[in-house]
Structures are given as structure tokens and as C-alpha cells.
Amino acid sequence: MERAESLDRAGCDIAAESLNRGHRLLIRVTGSSMVPAIWPGDTIEIIPAGEAPTSAGQVALYVRDGRLFAHRIVGVAEAAHVITRGDALAACDPPAARAEILGYVSVVVRDGRRIPMADGAPSRRARMLSFAIRNSNIARRLILGLRARRGGAYRTVNRCPA
Question: At what angle do helices 124-135 and 137-150 cross, to 10 degrees?
């Protein structure tokens, strides 16, 4: 387990360094916290934080506890902090300092298609699906299972990071 954690931290360090140097980054998603906007198995394109102002509705990438998280900004706690939450999660994350934000999701690549990530609130359909996933483990398993069978994403355990 220590080796896996060490590799995760190294990957986070490389991602942070690349974004800090102004490079865009492609990351394959493993978690389901951002369903339906981002599904397990999708690839997300991250633009460096310096390329876009921080605003509610954006999906920010940041490191916490040696892991990368891509969660939606839902509010501002104070001038130097933002509140984030995975679309499919019931609770908000602890406040993140704006300085912790490495970048923002600009594009989702799914089944060979590039889908621009719109800033702002998700669509009504997406909000309804997120609500079902957030409030029902049965709905979560059913929706993720149907998607996996359809050949979209692979099955994952119920993990938090997107």
C-alpha cells in the first residue's frame, strides 16, 4: 500500500509542476463523484489556473491528502477560499485555498468525443441525475452499472475523487 501511495503522490507532484509551468494536462478519471458531468473512464483536459478566473460552476483540480480532486466550485468561503463539491456527493469538501487550485477542467473526452465543460450550473437533467445518485446508493449502483454494461465507463468502487 505504501508503494501505491508513493506513486499517487509522485503523480500529483508531476501534475502540479506541469500545470504550474503553464502546460495543459490530460487525466483519466477513476472516481464517480462528478457523475453525470464526468464519468469514470473519461479523460479530462485541465488548463492551468492562471488561464481562467475562479468562478462558481467551474470544475477545479486541486491536490488534497496526496490525491487529485476535480470538483465543482459551489461557493466562496472568503476572499482566499472556495467551496467545492462533487456533483454526485451530498456534502461539500473542506474549503480550499485559491492557491491550492492547480487548474480547471476545460474539456471532457468521452468515447472519442471532446465535450467542452460549460461554466455555470449543470443542466436540469444533470442536476436531477446527480440528486438521485447523491441520495440513493441503489440509484448510484444502478446508474453506474448500466453505464458500465453499455460499454462507457468501467466499474469502480464507491470512491470520492473524480
Answer: 120
Q: Report the distance separating Cα 89 and Cα 87, nearest Å.
A: 6
In terms of DSSP bridges, do strands 25-28 and 43-48 run parallel, antiparallel, or are they unpaired?
A: antiparallel
Report the predicted TM-score, pTM, of the whole model to 2 decimal places. 0.81
Non-local CB neighbours of 58 within 8 Å, separated by 6+ positions: 52, 72, 73, 104, 105, 119
Residue 113, strand partner residues: 110
Would you kindly state where each structural domain of the chain is located, as residue ranges? 2-150
Query: Residue 46 class from Cβ within 10 Å (0-12 exposed, 13-18 middle, 19+ buried)?
Result: buried
Domain 2-150 has CATH 2.10.109.10: yes
pLDDT by position in tens, the chain (length 162): 577 677 777 888 899 999 999 999 999 999 889 998 999 999 999 999 986 778 888 999 998 888 899 999 999 877 789 999 999 999 999 999 988 999 999 999 998 999 998 766 677 888 888 888 888 888 888 888 887 777 654 433 333 344
160 within 8 A of 86, measured Cβ to Cβ? yes
